[in-house]
Amino acid sequence: MPELACLNGQIMPIDEAKVPIEDRGLQFGDSVYEVIRVYSGYPWLLDEHMARLQRSMQAINMSGVDVSKIAQQAKQVLQRSGIGDAVIYIQVTRGVAPRNHLIPRGIEPNVIITVRHANPPQAEHYTTGVKAITAPDVRWGRPDIKSTNLLPNVLALEQARQRGAFEAILIDQREGLVTEGCHTNVFAVLNGALRTPPVNHRILPGITRQFVINLATQAGIEVREEQLPLADLMRAQEVFLTGTVCEVIGVTLLDNTMVGDGTVGTITRRLHALYREAVQQAVASMER
């Protein structure tokens, strides 16, 4: 089954999709993006991802793009590819113009969509948990906008890989507060309650994050969206990460310190089971 791209509505093999060298997404990171997980042909939480894409474009004053049309194009590329378990990547750049810091007027955005086979974490990671490290959060001041300015994330994640870890959890060094992971949101279980940093300009409002909060609330688990000091993270009984591709995955080793008893905790396992159940129900509904 071929992995495909769609560039401004034209579907083609990924290696044939090209943008001009003066695209502002390439030269300035002047672009926003979304990643959608597909299960058995079902684009999971697509509407929520499209709403966030719209918010990101508004935040950088980008106009001229119809997100409903992008959603339809994404579905078309997915169907053409025939890939059941996939990841859809959507990137909207401001467009092409001679290099200048000033935002040019009258240019057309470029809309890039790719569909690739999903590459989720290994199954055993959900039962044994993963290792994470902490790293200083040196990103720009608006990571709540899902822009392609990801170099600090890339470097922190590379640091994690070099230390044999799955993720780097970012820490605001000024206040000693947890913000988020390089490509995940962070939760801690303290005294039976979930703690996670609140949505503000310091973190991305994760789609999976909000879905898990809703699941927890429905299951009667107390959820507290409040500042999470590093000291509290280090003494948590459970720590887990949420993300589009990793879903809900437990952290059992943090900076070479055991989290809780060193196993994936009860609440983490329960929430991941509820998450998978919700996915299965959505897929079954589509099939009917």
CATH superfamily assignment of the largest domain? D-amino Acid Aminotransferase, subunit A, domain 2
> Strand-residue fraction?
25-35%
Biggest sheet architecture: 9 strands, mixed
The CATH topology label of the largest domain is D-amino Acid Aminotransferase, Chain A, domain 2
List the total number of helices.
8
Structural class: alpha+beta
Number of domains: 2
In CATH, the architecture of the largest domain is: Alpha-Beta Barrel
Number of extended strands:
15
Mean pLDDT: 97
The residue ranges in which pLDDT falls below 50 over 5 or more consecutive positions are: none
Q: What radius of gyration results from the CA coordinates?
A: 19 Å
The backbone outline, from C-alpha atoms, is globular
Work out the helicity level.
25-40%
**Span between N and C termini?**
24 Å
Structural features, described:
With 288 residues, the chain is of the alpha+beta class. 32% of the residues lie in helices and 28% in strands. A hairpin with a 2-residue loop joins strand 10 and strand 11. Helix 2 packs across helix 3.
Keywords:
288 residues, alpha+beta, D-amino Acid Aminotransferase, Chain A, domain 2, 2 domains, 6-stranded antiparallel beta sheet, 32% helix
